[in-house]
Amino acid sequence: MRFRKLYVNINSQCNCQCINCILRKESRIKESLLGIEDIQQTLMKIDKLKSKYLNIFEISGGEPTLHNDLLGILSIVKSAKNEGKIHKIALLTNAMKLSDNAYCEKVSEYIDDAIVTLYSCYPDEHDWFTGVPGSFESKIQGIDNMIKNGVNVHIKILIIKPSYVNLKEMMSYIYSKWEDKVHIALNGTHFTGDAKDNHEDLSIQLSDAKVYIEDALDFLLDNKIRFSVFLPLCILDPKYWKNSPVRYKELIDNSFSISPTYGFGKATRLLDEFINKNPICQNCVLVERCNWPWKQYCNIYGSGEILYYRDKLGLKIQGGE
Amino acid sequence: MTTKIGNTIIVYSEKLKEEVEFELVDENLSIENYECIGCSNADYGN
Asked: What is the mean pLDDT of residues A157-170?
């Protein structure tokens, strides 16, 4: 099966003020929305784009659960799914509103998957990231509710300065809560929007985090927790490479983005980050299988460590450069 | 030193203390297990 994604930003407002947000604060304050008609038009456009690819309809924001008509939108998309036009419905959410189980039950009727970013396993540290006291407890309850309601939950973990030394503790916490019921995506940070402005508080050189990342991945392997890595493979020991995404380039290359500001188009930012690789990676044997947000990271740290690990492992294709 | 044979990479793992095989194109792996569906906001501003 081949997939593509429809990244649908239905609103811009958010109930958190995460310092690593890839949107700027001003764009989160000024509300812009996609309504039911916009979603209907999107589905009609998709229907005309006949393709061998199955559509994953991924709804995000802002925080999509703040959209007044989220359930109406989900109902339409679910109808399209029942007609075979959509393969899967996913929701990118901070899960805080889903701590209300009555609301969570309604949302869960429509969605297959949810993606939630967890910044720390320590409430105070987590809430420092979000700028909202109590956000950790609400998020954990929201995740709990979704799992109980049958949603396939993906927990996104970022490699960031304040919490990278506690990565294994985070995995241990997740396992203690939900065992192997969640999938974990370990990601590099997109240093754009507010995250770019705050990068000195956020960014850590990946080679400095390597030992902590690998300890955390060993914990996941030992406990049979599903995970994916969206980090430069050359920095990780080959033991973990099999957990890099398969056919991700193809997935992004065939995906579309829909938002109130930009309308319907290709997922250009993701194409720029994940398809148009770092020039020194073009000659790496892993280029088709290694996916991470390299551009802003390399603007901060350069490409020296990538070059070092690439050459140490002998990954350069002969005749390149 | 890494060796490439077709779509298979043979590379030494310091963690495992042995050479391991890595498939560049692994049709047996399901993308369901590995997809990143967290990278949304595809048109976020710089």
From this structure: 95
The Cα–Cα gap between A312 and A66 comes to 48
Q: What is the mean pLDDT of residues A241-264?
A: 84
Amino acid at A249: K
A310 to chain B, any CB pair closer than 8 A? The answer is: no
- Whether A244 and A287 have beta carbons less than 8 Å apart is answered as no
CA distance A8 to chain B (A): 8
In angstroms, the CA A104 to CA A131 distance is 23
Restricting to A residues 193-222, those with a Cβ less than 8 Å away from any Cβ of B are 193, 196, 214
d(C-alpha A10, C-alpha A5), whole Å: 15
Tens-place pLDDT, residues A72-106:
999 999 999 999 999 999 999 999 999 999 999 99
Chain centroid to Cα A136, Å, comes to: 18
Cα B12 → chain centroid:
15
Neighboring chain B residues of A153 at a CB cutoff of 8 Å: none
Q: Give the pLDDT score at B31.
A: 54
Q: Are A15 and A132 in contact (CB under 8 A)?
A: yes
Going by pLDDT thresholds of 50, 70 and 90, the confidence category of residue B35 is low
Distance from the Cα of A115 to chain B's closest Cα (Å) equals 6
Contact B35 A115 (CB under 8 A): no
CA atoms of A126 and A17, how far apart (whole Å): 12
Q: What is the ipTM of this complex?
A: 0.83
Sign of CA dihedral A16, A257, A27, A33: negative
Give CA–CA dist A76/A147, Å, rounded: 23
